[in-house]
Amino acid sequence: MGDITIVAEAEDDRSAWNELHAGFASYYGVEQTDEMRDRVWGWIRDGRLECRLALDGAGRAIGLTHFREYIRPLFAARGGFLDDLFVAPEARGSGAAATLIRAVADIGRERGWNSIRWITRDNNYRARTLYDRVASRTDWITYDITL
Question: Residue 79 contacts by C-beta under 8 Å, 6 or more apart in sequence?
């Protein structure tokens, strides 16, 4: 596929981001509205959430990641939480996902974070193959309370 470049999103990336974010939601079976995407884009633009896009050799956005800093009180440290990682189906296997993860890890090192954390579905086998290569699986179990 050619070289992968990672860039911070810009206002004129909105259309490409919309397409990727919609693909991410569809992959996980989450119904989304334009209002929901507007809200997330607003969080990105106001700095509450960060976004990086993976561009292919032609400059086309083929992947995205959303991440944010979080505090780790037990360790008196800061870490990064990688909320979302998505690569368009036609670009899977291109190295975009690994390059996006590396970019977030590099940002974390620059900012003094002591870890990058993320979750994935148990049955996301293809992605887990990559995650098992680049990170350590934890023994923590995640719980949610739906409000």
Answer: 69, 70, 71, 72, 108, 113, 114, 115, 116, 117
Q: Give the Cβ contact number of residue 89 at 10 Å.
A: 9
Two structure tokens written together for 39 = 């809200």
Please give the single-letter amino acid code of residue 114.
N
Could you give the strand order of the β-sheet that contains 5-8, starting from the edge strand earlier in sequence? 5-8, 50-55, 61-72, 77-87, 116-117
Query: Which conformational region is residue 2 in: left (phi greater than 0), alpha (psi within -120 to 50 degrees), or beta?
Result: left
Q: 10 Å Cβ neighbour count for 79? A: 17
User: 5-14: per-residue pLDDT in tens?
Assistant: 999 999 999 9
Three-state DSSP class for residue 4: coil
Query: What pLDDT digit, counting tens, does each position of 72-129 carry?
Result: 999 999 999 999 999 999 999 999 999 999 999 999 999 999 999 999 999 999 999 9
Task: Kindly list the distances between the CA atom of residue 114 and the CA atoms of 48, 66, 102, in Å, as whole numbers in the listed order.
Answer: 20, 18, 14
Q: Tokens standing for 71?
A: 């505090």
**And the tokens for 44?**
């990105």
